[in-house]
């Protein structure tokens, strides 16, 4: 009888240990491989939006410069923007000629601008900028969107400047100590070193560098490719966390 009792107790003990171990495994958050997404995930923030800015000066044939409509239509087709849903804005004056289109596809707001500045003596140079905005993005979207942008710029034989920003939020207002923890957790999650910090009352902004991100800028001989800001908004009682690379180019 005692033998059977020991077996039952051993079985229950093993079952309890297994359940405890499984619960711990299930409670560990799944971290993405994309550095920016991983950093904002480490703060516990709810990811709300993604913004990608891209820019380059491209070379076009003289006839293409004179008729930017063809080029803008080609770009719209690349992003699968429906012609009937595109909003177009044209500016023509003594300083510039530009065409801007905006549209939406698969939940992305896409704006494309082609601009010729007449003050520039180089006739075939055109400023091309593309911005993609998306609400509640998945982590894989960051890499995919950037690859899509690189693909289009490389058709013009240039490498663009790309800036990526993620914004998320935490409910309520963080104490200063909690905000410091968020910054530390975000930077530690991607092996980033902080190299500057600004405390502005109701916001904190820091810059840093991580080897996990290839792009960088040099500021005062210091490499920078991560920028993080934490700001509390009283109107909706939320603390917004913005993380950008190499810098934040959205309002916070």
Automatic annotation (TrEMBL):
Q: Which InterPro entries match?
A: DUF1779, YwmB-like_sf
Q: Give the superkingdom in one word.
A: Bacteria
The name this protein carries in UniProt is YwmB family TATA-box binding protein
């Amino acid at each position: 009888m005692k033998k059977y009792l020991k077996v039952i107790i051993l079985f229950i003990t093993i079952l309890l240990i297994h359940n405890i171990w499984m619960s711990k495994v299930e409670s560990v958050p799944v971290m993405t491989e994309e550095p920016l997404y991983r950093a904002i995930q480490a703060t516990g923030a709810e990811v709300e939006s993604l913004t990608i800015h891209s820019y380059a000066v491209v070379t076009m044939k003289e006839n293409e410069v004179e008729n930017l409509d063809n080029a803008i239509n080609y770009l719209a087709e690349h992003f699968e923007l429906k012609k009937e849903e595109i909003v177009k804005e044209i500016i023509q004056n003594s300083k510039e000629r530009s065409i801007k289109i905006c549209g939406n596809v698969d939940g992305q707001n896409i704006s494309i601008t082609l601009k010729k500045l007449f003050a520039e003596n180089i006739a075939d140079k055109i400023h091309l900028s593309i911005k993609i905005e998306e609400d509640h993005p998945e982590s894989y979207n960051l890499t995919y969107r950037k690859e899509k942008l690189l693909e289009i710029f490389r058709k013009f034989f240039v490498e663009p400047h790309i800036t990526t920003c993620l914004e998320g939020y935490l409910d309520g207002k963080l104490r200063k100590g909690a905000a410091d923890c968020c910054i530390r957790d975000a930077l530690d999650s991607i092996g980033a070193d902080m190299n500057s910090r600004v405390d502005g009352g109701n916001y904190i902004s820091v810059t840093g560098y991580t080897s996990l991100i290839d792009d960088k800028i040099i500021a005062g001989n210091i490499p920078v490719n991560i920028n993080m800001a934490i700001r509390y908004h009283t109107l909706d009682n939320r603390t917004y966390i913005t993380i950008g690379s190499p810098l934040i180019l959205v309002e916070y």
